[in-house]
Amino acid sequence: MGDTLRVAVIGAKGRIGSEAVRAVEAAAGMELVAALGRGDDLGELTRTGAQVAVELTHPDSVMENLEFCVRNGIHGVVGTTGWTDERLARLTGWLAESPGTGVLIAPNFSIGAVLTMRFAAQAARFFESAEVIELHHPTKADAPSGTATRTAQLIAEARRAADLPPQPDATTTGLPGARGADVDGVHVHSVRVRGLLAHQEVLLGGQGETLTIRHDSLHHSSFMPGILLAARKVTGTPGLTFGLENYLDLD
Ligand SMILES: NC(=O)C1=CN([C@@H]2O[C@H](COP(=O)(O)OP(=O)(O)OC[C@H]3O[C@@H](n4cnc5c(N)ncnc54)[C@H](O)[C@@H]3O)[C@@H](O)[C@H]2O)C=CC1
Ligand SMILES: O=C(O)C1=N[C@H](C(=O)O)C[C@H](O)C1
């Protein structure tokens, strides 16, 4: 097998999965050994000696796929959304039984989105108000996006650390849903519009000023450098890592 990293893509026919297949095929030092779609046999991963599986499917599929990978010592690079504390705890349990195996879950693989989350967390303590607007293609299965959920959680953590009070909001009447979803005290608004891909704005507001942090993914290629970096790093990073920022030297 030499030094070439043997990589599989699960969800290989999807929007991001098909881009990942092309990226792995073109990447130096990597070989695409399996490209699995819905209904394909996961046994292909062990038969082909995959070392890393890039999981880009659906929240309903990701747990079964990851359980197979971890139990077979195959490292995981996961972009699929839908993570809850309960799911993370199950995954952590499988990893504990498979020492040396690593899984990276990245709510977003694009560097701009990772930086958006970081900047939003840094700015949060300075502003009374913070809301997130995420805008995506209308074929997206989940809302809010994994990125927006994580962004809101990071903002909430920063507000708690700074002992900020709840956000000002006098709304007492109106249509249900008009204020978006409440993620840990931070409102998140999900827009689904044909022509969009993946976009996010974080709006922060204080006395007499606002700060808007915006990121746009204009093509699925924006996620590929992060996926390839993660595939290279995950083999030396056992256990669960949540967020691509942990693989980047950001500080
Ligand atoms: N973390 C990140 O940077 C990014 C994450 N995503 C996430 O990736 C996931 C997929 O997104 P899209 O490609 O847009 O969706 P998609 O619907 O275009 O593709 C998903 C593919 O997975 C396949 N699939 C479903 N269950 C499967 C299974 N058990 N085994 C093998 N294949 C299976 C489907 O048939 C489909 O071809 C979503 O959760 C999305 O939010 C998408 C883009 C970037
Ligand atoms: O479904 C998508 O397209 C995307 N999903 C991820 C998310 O939910 O945050 C990442 C990116 O926004 C694209």
TrEMBL record:
One of its GO terms (biological process) is diaminopimelate biosynthetic process. Coiled coil: none annotated. Keywords: Amino-acid biosynthesis, Cytoplasm, Diaminopimelate biosynthesis, Lysine biosynthesis, NAD, NADP, Oxidoreductase. It is an enzyme of class 1 (oxidoreductase). GO terms for cellular component: cytosol. Residues 112-248 form the Dihydrodipicolinate reductase C-terminal domain. The keyword NAD applies. Its EC number is 1.17.1.8. NAD(+) binds at residues 11-16, 79-81, 106-109. (S)-2,3,4,5-tetrahydrodipicolinate binds at residues 137, 146-147. Pathway: Amino-acid biosynthesis; L-lysine biosynthesis via DAP pathway; (S)-tetrahydrodipicolinate from L-aspartate: step 4/4. Belongs to the DapB family. Homotetramer. Catalyzes the conversion of 4-hydroxy-tetrahydrodipicolinate (HTPA) to tetrahydrodipicolinate. PANTHER family: 4-HYDROXY-TETRAHYDRODIPICOLINATE REDUCTASE 1, CHLOROPLASTIC-RELATED (PTHR20836:SF0), DIHYDRODIPICOLINATE REDUCTASE (PTHR20836). This is 4-hydroxy-tetrahydrodipicolinate reductase. It comes from Streptomyces smaragdinus.
